[in-house]
Amino acid sequence: MLNIALIAHDRKKDEMVNFVTAYEHVFEGHKLYATGTTGTRIMANTKLSIHRFMSGPLGGDQQIGAMVAENEMDFIIFLRDPLMAQPHEPDIIALLRLCDVQGIPCATNIATAELLVRALDRGDFAWRELVHKYKPGIE
User: Is 47 annotated as belonging to a binding site?
Assistant: First the structure.
């Protein structure tokens, strides 16, 4: 079971809902996280259970970023709207930077999201399960 975050800017929310609906059978075996409205919309249109964080501008991107920093997130689908200025742009850039630092795959468009989900369906993310299995902890 992998931890997957789903984030979508306002003009990309319909696209995210359609995408997750199409691949509901792939997502149903994993722990899903999303920012506020995105998570609500996905749950309203699927049978998936999603842990919702705050909306992005209110800190949801940073909450997901905290999981990335702790190597607790396995991949992210973040459908960004590159043509609309975002008031929380520094938070977005920080999240993307954390993904790069930690080596966490992050799709920022539907084409890359498709590749990640198809890889997930094939079992290509088994290496992330080893990361969780051997993660150092307090004993």
Answer: no
Q: Is 56 annotated as a binding residue?
A: yes
For 41-64, write each residue's pLDDT tens digit. 999 999 999 999 998 888 889 999
Reduce the secondary structure of the chain to three states and give it as a string. CCEEEEEECHHHHHHHHHHHHHCHHHHCCCEEEECHHHHHHHHHHCCCCEEECCCHHHCHHHHHHHHHHCCCCCEEEEECCCCCCCCCHHHHHHHHHHHHHHCCCEECCHHHHHHHHHHHHHCCCHHHHHHHHCCCCCC
- Catalytically active residues are 61
Segment 66-115, tens digit of pLDDT: 999 998 999 999 999 888 878 778 888 999 999 999 889 999 999 999 99
Task: Confirm or deny that 38 is annotated as ligand binding.
Answer: yes
What's the pTM?
0.90
